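Why do we care about 3D structure at all? Because function follows from shape, and shape follows, mostly, from sequence. That is the central idea of this module. The next example makes it concrete: a single protein chain, its amino acid sequence, and then its structure expressed as tokens.
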Amino acid sequence: MIEGALLVFAAFLLDLLLGDPRRFPHPVRGMGWLAAKLESIFRLSPLPLRISGIAVALLLVGISGAAAWLMIAAASALHPYAGTFVSVLILWSCFATRDLERHALAVLTPLLNGDLVEARRKVSWMVGRDTEGLDTEGVVLAAAESVAENTVDGVTAPMFYAFLFGPVGAVVFKAASTLDSSFGYKNDRYREFGWASARFDDLLNYLPARLTVLAVALGAMAGKMRVFDIFKAVNKGAGLHESPNAGFPEAAFAGALGVRFGGARSYSGVVKHAPMLGVEEEKCSPDTLRSAVGLMQRTAWFFIGGGLAFSVAVDLLIVT
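And the structure:
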């Protein structure tokens, strides 16, 4: 198991150094394209929408996982090192630590320069809410919440499945995440069609979201942040979130940062109220966003360190 864990670590380091492989065809973009094609096909079928959505979810996950397995198998047939190389490349494409940092810093830079208009534009790439009328605190809040939620989706959850099931496991998770971002909406168009996509993503994120709280606590401890407020915030507010999983990292980050996430936000002009997460209510500032990025990075290091330690422990148990 340790050999596979070392591949995960190598891919993580590659992601930290280079970020997303933008010059190469990205698997997630391919998954998004395939999801759209499958939707257009199955919406023309006589099947009920929920059944069509289940079929699309199964096909996307199956095709994505099979493609990853075939690529590794074909490369390994040429040479074992080629299989290792392809495995690392696939894992690299599943991690988004550096990319998440870049998106957050792209918001932070104009804020520090006093360019609120540009900061609003950059944060609109991270969140689905309306950003045109946000003040500095609103921009920071939106970006910090996105960093917190995506610490699971883009960092710890793909690591979790990579440690357990290798590159194919990480790809299957990314396929589920793509399904949710494509179809997991509670509106008239996707309430039935996207039911399976949303439920599958919820299922796969259940354990990683909760384990991430522990990694956040370790990251907060290393950064001399509010460790005990993390558990207070999670216990008090994580279950209030409309997502069964997103409330855990968001509450943990809010507790560590000493701020409140949630409140009123607008989507296409419709105001919605998210539950308040956190135990303190300090004002969000650019420093809050900088601290959130640092906490995300430390969380990633502690999570991957835990995965490596787990892999070593399993190997030792097998040997003895």
